[in-house]
Amino acid sequence: MGYEESRRRLVDAVLTAPGETPTEVRRAVLEPATGPGPLSSYVSNVVRHPYKVTDTDVARLRHAGHSDDSLFEITVAAAVGAAIHRLDRGLAALRGEEPD
Questions:
Q1: What is the pLDDT of residues 75-93, one digit of tens each?
Q2: Cβ proximity of 94 and 65 under 8 Å
Q3: Exposed, middle or buried by CB within 10 Å (0-12, 13-18, 19+), for 35?
Q4: What is the CA angle 85-90-95, rounded to 5?
Q5: 15 within 8 A of 74, measured Cβ to Cβ
Q6: How many C-beta atoms surround the C-beta of residue 79 within 10 A?
Q7: Distance between CA 60 and CA 89 in Å, rounded?
Q8: I want to staple 47 with a disulfide (CB 3.0 to 4.6 A). Which of 29, 33, 35, 67 is the partner?
Q9: pTM over 0.90
Q10: Could you give the CA distance from residue 69 to residue 97 in angstroms, rounded to a whole number?
């Protein structure tokens, strides 16, 4: 299995696996790595500064009505989206292409 097939299967698993978080929200978090409403700062931290995510951040989102399962799904989608983006940029650089 090549890179493109592996990538497709990973993204498909993140977006279509059964879960609490609607597919549209998972897609929004995975693709542009942004979250709707109160999720935006959390997703931004997961993507750019995951070491800065605190228990307080998670508690705030729980208080806003997000379950642990939903937060896990959102975190995975954001992390996978960030990883794919970084890998694609790295591969483009190796090919001598300009970054996006």
A1: 999 999 999 999 988 888 8
A2: no
A3: buried
A4: 125
A5: no
A6: 18
A7: 33
A8: 33
A9: no
A10: 39
Report phi then psi at 18, rounded to 5.
Answer: -60, 140
Alpha helices in the chain (DSSP H): 3-16, 23-30, 39-48, 55-63, 68-94
| Gyration radius from the chain CA atoms | 14
Distance CA 39, CA 91 (A): 30
Sign of CA dihedral 22, 9, 43, 74: positive
Query: Alpha-carbon distance 90 to 88, whole Å?
Result: 5
- Token output for 93: 């650089």
Q: In this structure, are residues 47 and 99 in contact, taking their beta carbons and an 8 Å threshold?
A: no
pLDDT digits (tens, 9 = 90+) for 47-61: 999 999 999 999 999
* Torsion (CA) 65, 68, 74, 79 in degrees, nearest 10: 140
